[in-house]
Amino acid sequence: MTSGSIAGIVDEKATLGQVLRRLRKDRKLKQEDVSKYLGVERVTCSAYETDRVIPPPDKLYKLAEFYGISIELLASKTLTKHSDVIENKRVKSNEADLKSAEMMYYYTRLDDTQKRIIFDLIRELYGK
């Protein structure tokens, strides 16, 4: 497509979706224009621009080509998104580990009768 200045879209905090949206809007294009070029549905373009879906490598290449920018710019935004997702999962995993450890702490201090009651309650809640 057209080469243009990428000033303003290289904000380190901008997500891939924000960059894609800015590129499209700066060129006064509609999502339909981009989706047609990529060979995807408009909703897929929308998902790319709202960071609900990360475009596969072949689509990233086509997007870079379409907007006349380097693939490295888009790829770096993809890596940032993956890093954020991984970090978010790590935080949630740590929170779950802490809750599990706390539950085990209290459970080990129960007598056998109390442990049996808790076990039966969990099985009942679980539906088995």
From TrEMBL:
InterPro entries: Cro/C1-type_HTH (IPR001387), Lambda_DNA-bd_dom_sf (IPR010982)
Stretches assigned to the HTH cro/C1-type domain: 20-74
One Gene Ontology molecular-function label: DNA binding
Coiled-coil residues: none
One Pfam family here: HTH_3
Keywords linked to the UniProt accession: DNA-binding
Superkingdom of origin organism: Bacteria
SUPFAM superfamilies: lambda repressor-like DNA-binding domains (SSF47413)
PANTHER family reported in the protein's UniProt record: HTH-TYPE TRANSCRIPTIONAL REGULATOR XRE, TRACRIPTIONAL REGULATORY PROTEIN-RELATED-RELATED
The protein's name in its UniProt record: DNA-binding transcriptional regulator, XRE-family HTH domain
Protein's organism: Butyrivibrio proteoclasticus
